[in-house]
Amino acid sequence: RHRRVRKKIAGNKETLRLSVHRSHLNLYTQLINDVENITVLSVSTRDKKFKEKSPQGGNIKAAKLLGQILAEKAKLKGINKVVFDRGGYIYHGRIKALAESIRAGGINC
Fold it and tell me: Taking the complete model, does pTM exceed 0.70, yes or no?
């Protein structure tokens, strides 16, 4: 499933790829430039700054908070547009809450 999604989605210097990984207890996000094969920004629910705000990382509330944090950090780096790579996960629940929160933060995805 992930390979099918990745055939169609790629990030470049202007439009980075927002990759999402969902585990049972946490969410992990990365902004990736696929042309140069570098990760520009990485945020997860296991980060110390996130744990100060929310102890749990595996629910919808945590996904919304993670989206806000990611949008703030991306704005500081001058990133306004990304391509959302849901990683083969269904666009529902935590994945949907994360994407909507990022859009609410001013990032076009």
Answer: yes
- What whole-number distance in Å separates Cα of residue 60 and Cα of residue 94? 5
pLDDT band at 10 (very low <50, low <70, confident <90, very high): confident
CA distances from 53 to 32, 45, 49, 68, 105 (A): 26, 10, 7, 12, 17
As given in the structure block, the two tokens for residue 31 are: 């902004």
| C-alpha separations of 17 from 28, 56, 64 in Å | 13, 26, 19
Structure tokens, 60 = 């919808």
φ/ψ of residue 80, rounded to 5: -120, -15
C-alpha 47/C-alpha 66 separation (Å) is: 10
What would the pLDDT profile of 66-103 be if each residue is shown by its tens digit?
999 999 999 999 999 999 998 889 999 999 999 999 99
pLDDT value of residue 78: 94
Give me the residues paired with residue 83 across strands. 17
